[in-house]
Every structure is written in C-alpha cells, then in structure tokens.
Design a protein that fits this description.
The complex is a heterodimer of chains A (245) and B (368).
Chain A lengths: L5 E10 L2 E11 L4 E6 L5 H8 L7 E6 L2 E2 L4 H6 L1 E4 L11 H11 L4 H14 L15 H12 L6 E5 L7 H16 L3 E5 L3 H6 L2 E6 L2 E6 L1 H8 L4 H13 L2
Helix pairs in contact in A: 3-4, 5-6, 8-9
Chain B lengths: L1 H16 L1 H21 L7 E7 L4 H12 L3 E6 L3 H10 L4 E5 L3 H8 L4 E5 L4 H21 L24 H32 L1 H7 L4 H31 L7 H25 L3 H18 L12 H7 L3 H15 L3 H30 L1
Parallel strand pairs in B: 1-2, 1-3
Antiparallel strand pairs in B: 3-4
The chains are: A alpha/beta (245), B alpha/beta (368).
Chain lengths: 245, 368
Amino acid sequence: MVKPVIFTDKLTRRFGDFIAVDELSFSVDKGEIFGFLGANGAGKTTAIRMLTGLLTPSTGAASVAGFDLYTESEKVKRNIGYMSQRFSLYDDLTVKENIRFFAGIYGLTDTAIREKSAKLLETLDLQHAANTLLRSLPLGWKQKLAFSVAILHEPKIVFLDEPTGGVDPITRRRFWDMIYEASEKGVTVFVTTHYMDEAEYCDRISIMVDGRVAALDTPEALKRQHGVESMNEVFINLARHDKTF
Amino acid sequence: MLSFMGFLQKEFYHIFRDRRTAVILFGMPLIQLLLFGFAIRNEIQDVKLGVYDKSRDAVTRAIISKFASSGYFILSREVRSEKEIEDAFSTGSITEALVFEPDFARRLQRDGRAEVQVITDGSNPNLSRIVSGYTAAVLQDFRNSSVQGSGMEAGVVAVPLMLFNPELKSVDLFVPGLMALILMLVSALMTSISITREKESGTMEVLLVSSLRPAGIIIGKVVPYFLLSFINVLTIIAVAALVFGVPCRGSLLLLLLESLLFIVTALSLGIFISSVTSSQQVAMMIALAGLLLPTILLSGFIFPVASMPLPLRMISNIIPAKWYLIIVRGIMLKGAGFSYIWKETLVLVAMSTILIVASIKKFKIRLQ
C-alpha cells in the first residue's frame, strides 16, 4: 500500500477557548488534487497553516510528505510549495529576479537555479519579459508565475490558498490547466477555494463547517448523496444544515 | 547561506528601486544636516546696536569701538533720548541698546564703577538672552584689557565661561542630535516598514514556509539597514567636520562603536514595532509618533532635559536617543573616554536586549 502524502489524525488547534480546527482526520494520496472548501472562518486557513508548518497543532497527529509535522518540520518545509491568495511575488523585482530569489530560498543550487529559470521562462513564454519588473505584468501572468515558482523546486505537495481570487473565469480555467499538468507529473495539489465551479475540477473535496469536516468525497458522490445537481447546492445544504441547530 | 545571500540581494533591490526609500536613506541625512547647520542657528551675528552715550568720553568711546570690532555687533545708530530708543526698538532698527551714564569715565576713576544699561528686546526672550550674554562678554573683555592698577577691577565680578563650546556654536550641539534622529529614522522606521510590507503583501508567509529560518529572515531584513545606517554615521561625521568644523575631541573609534550600538538599539525597536503590527501604515505611525517626536523633543536634542518638568524627565529616560546624545556629546565635544560614558552605554545595551527578547517572544506567539 502506498503511504498517503498528507495524513492527519484528529488534528486540533485551539486559540484559548475557541476551537478553530476540531479533530481533523483525512489523508491525501500522491498526485491527487484535493479541494479544501469551507465558508470564511470555518478553519481552512488554520488547517493549511498547520500543514505548512506555520502553526503548531494543539493536539493530534499529522504527517506531510512522509515527515512528522512536529518533529521533522524542517524536512516538511523542504518538500512543500506554497502559494497564497496574493500571489506573493515581489512587484519591484524583475521576473527573472523573482524566480532566482524564490528558487534560492527553497534551497536550489546556483546551477540548478540557472537551468530551471531558463527553462521556466521558455515554458511560460516569458523570455521577452525576463527583465521587466513584475509590477508591469498582467495579473494572469503573475498568477502563472507564482504557481510555477511554488513548484520549481519539485515539491511533493503544493499548497494553494485561494489561488484564483480576483481573476477572470478564462484566466482561472487556464490556471487549472497548469494544476492538472502538475498533478500529472505526480505533484499533489492541496487547494482552497471559494469558487464552486473549481470544486468540480478536484479529484476529492472536503467541506469544513465550524472547524470540522462536514463532508469528504469525490464531487460526484457528494452531489449524489445530497441529491442535487451542483457543488454549489451541496455547499449551501451543508452550511444551512449546520446553522439550524 | 546561499539563500541568505539571495535574500540580502533582494533587500538591496527593494531599497534602491524604491525612489522614496533611497531619498529617505541618503537625501534626508544630508538635507537635515545642511538645514540644521546653516539655517537653524542659535548664535547671532550682526546684532544691531543702538548707543545712547550721555557721557561721550574716552572710555565710552573705547567700549563702543570694542563692540564694533567684536564681530558680533554693528553700530546701527546713535540715539539721543530714551524716547528714541523705544522707537528704534519698535521699528526694529536696533536689537540692543547701550546707555552710558553721564560722567562715565570720571565715576569709573573715582568710585571704581560706572553703569552702562543694557536694553534688549524681551519679546524675543531667546534672542535677547543670547545678545545680553554677548554684551556681558564684550564688557568683560574690555575690563580685562583696560589699564591695570587703575582700581577698575575692584569688586567680585562673576565671569561666565562656556566650556567645550566657547562660541556657543549651535551646530556643535545639533550634530549629535541629528545623528540620533537620522539613525532612528533609518534603522527603526525603515526596518519596521520593510518587515510589515512583507506581511501585508503575503510574501512573509511564503518566506516562513520556505527553508529560511525566521531568525534568518529578520537578520536579512536588518543587515542592509545596519550597513546603510553606518554609512550615514560616517557621512554625518565627515560633513560636520569638513563643512561646519565640528570637532571630534574624543576617540573616533569609540564614537563609531557607540554609534553601532545605538543602531542596534534602533533596529531592535524597528523589529519590535513590526512584531506588534502587521500594517505598514500603523508601523509608520508608531515609528513617527512614538519614536521620532520623542527623539526630537524629549531627548535633549533641542530642549534641555534638565529644564523639563518631572514627568517628562522620567519619560525621557526610556528614550534611547537621550542616552546616545549624552554619549556623543561627551565624546565629540568633551573628549570623554569610555570610563565617563559606560553607564549610558549599559542603558543602551539593556534596552536592545529587552527589545530583542520581547520581539522573539512576540514572534513565537504569532507562530503558535
């Protein structure tokens, strides 16, 4: 049996009396596109912060990329990529400098950086813009670049925290093509999103409500269980059900 | 190590590509120094002097010519009545009036004393205090140089003597204050802004997720400003010495070392500020209102700490610039060695340590 790439067992995080994430248990397999859904304040961000090593869990066990979250957090860091909702590149650096910088902090060697950045510029068809400041690049390009940079060091998992916020539908669709491509190469994709159409693109999704996982399955199975046509309705069903008690 | 060098390089790109940052870093120190050095002066030249000489003898003429040749006064006009003096002050044609009593020389011979009344414009107290100080100095000078044995030096006369800055050159006093101000500005303000900028743009998270260690990120943020602040110190000392002739009477090495210590204090303040807030705006407000104003007003830069009311005097103790000012003035103007300033040095060391420990605590809490 293949070890799951992400594995959590009753992972919990408290802030004082408030339980932000309550006994989170799930596992994600290699190459899977795992959608992580939930309303604002449902605990998504806390969960993703724990899994990326930004936040220490209160209780529970978890391993990411095969390494223990508590004892091997440095190794975890070396095997994951991260892209936040603000694309997190530097506006006042050129395209090339951004690539070099992020490749550097993810621990690539100088020769590897040179090789990979040349290749990346070619793949993205950005050679002509290599020396322009990122600030003057269109949003869609920034987003593509941010994603490519996050997986440049060939991590086992890439965490995408609302990667498509504020981007038009066509650009979003193109962005998902990139995600599929990465997934085919064996990179596990862990993605949070607000867009229910994007949820349909995922292999499996989990929906968090008030710190707990309220549902976890493939989009088709979830729709079938709730007897509805779209993920949107599944989501509203779950959220509304929760508010009635 | 490789990634750390890359980080430093990125920081320098940030600094040199943002025109505003570059101007604050390199333009401000020079502009401020020149401004304070040339424009804001406490010493006064060409005081317009009105003379009402009721005696008109050899001694009064000698005194008047002494004033005229002192370099500080110009003989503006002769006055012939008390009324005329008042008018002259009102129109601003004189800043000071001297009134010699009748029979000045004779009284001086006979009684050993004669009176000259010094009238200044009290509506500008600062100015009139300085002007009457000059006047006293010139009169004293005259007394010393006049014929010995004539009984004129009878009686005890208080002789004010300004040590260390005999000409009361204000630029000598401003330079240390300016160094404190600029180092605060560059070190504390700029680092806090640069760290909060990363938080605002979301890049801080990416940095933390990467293999860089949190301490490495902070050090990488601080090192460029440390270097640039030090360059600023050298620039200020050089310009002050070459353009304004401000001396460094003590050890230059000691001055530089103490400045490095103050830079560390300021940088840890900057780090602390950015650990309390995550917005550039708030960081800037805290740095400006909480650091720059006290540095200007309460450190002794402009207003002497000793003349402040007790509450303000107590507050001034927690302002790093106050201690740095004492140190710099001690070294530059008095030629003090380390044995005279170790207490102030210790205060700065303690402040930096507390700030760094507090920031680390704060930083850890954020991560947990």
